Amino acid sequence: MTGSDAFLPIMADCERGLGRPERALDLVRSKEAERLDRIGKIELAIVESGARRDLGQKDAAVITLQRLPELRDTRPQPWSARLAFAYADALADAGHEEPAAEWFGRAVDFDEDGETDAAERYAELTGTVIEDLEDDEDDEDDEDDEDDDEDAADQFDIEEIGDLLVADIDLQDEDVDEEADVKIDDAAALDAEIEAEDDLVDEPVIDDNHRDEAPAVEDKVEAGVGPAFIEPDFGDILDDPADDDDDDADEGKAEKK
């Protein structure tokens, strides 16, 4: 209707869906098919493979897709999921279950958007659910993460224990230093007390000596001070020697009488 050849693969697939695989193959061999781009030709080859399967040409259906070089491209492309699924479906229909399962697995890898039911077909052939495989991979990743976390925790514990041991040693050293300082301070205080006691012991002796000597000094002072307040008595020292001689003469005269 639009004059474009891009809808040719869709038209051929509709003929196949209507149960007219021969009409679908006629469109595949038409001149319009030669003007399709690469993606259009790949889509038309997929429809051709399905039409040949409908006609019972199972090996021809497989060969139709094997001729495409894009089938061996491991890089993800817009057609990769649909092409891998169609090839796996053709292999399974031809009785090649083992390679079919492999290609269904490839289709799952390419089909990130869930465009095909490759996961279900893979599960039918192998009995293994793709989701279980993904869960197993996730579990392995989780286990690896847990192992890494445990290793990191163990390393942290070792470092923390090492830090605590170093801190304990430092505290012990500080305690030893404090004890040494206390002992030194105690020794210094003890020496000061001993010196103070020696001074106290020496002081009473000095005081006693002073006290013993003090009365003598006081006596001397009193002896020296006493005469200063007593009337001088010179005795006979002040008598005239001539008077003594007169007294002696008078005593002699009296005896003669």
Over the alpha carbons, how many angstroms does the gyration radius reach?
A: 69 Å
What average pLDDT do the residues reach? Answer: 72
Shape designation: elongated
Q: Which class do the helix and strand fractions yield?
A: mainly alpha
Sequence of secondary-structure elements: HHHHHHHHHH
Residue fraction in strands: under 5%
In the CATH hierarchy, what is the architecture of the domain at 5-128 at level 2?
Answer: Alpha Horseshoe
Find the CATH superfamily of the domain at 5-128: Tetratricopeptide repeat domain
Largest sheet: none
Query: Separation of termini?
Result: 216 Å
Low confidence ranges: 201-234, 237-242, 252-257
User: Under CATH, the topology of the domain at 5-128 is which?
Assistant: Serine Threonine Protein Phosphatase 5, Tetratricopeptide repeat
User: How many DSSP E strands?
Assistant: 0
**Separate helix tally:** 10
In the CATH scheme, the class of the domain at 5-128 would be: Mainly Alpha
Q: Assign a percent range to the helix content.
A: over 70%
Organism: Streptosporangium album
Protein name: Replicase polyprotein 1ab
Biased composition (Acidic residues): 131-158, 196-206, 233-250
Region (Disordered): 130-158, 196-215, 225-257
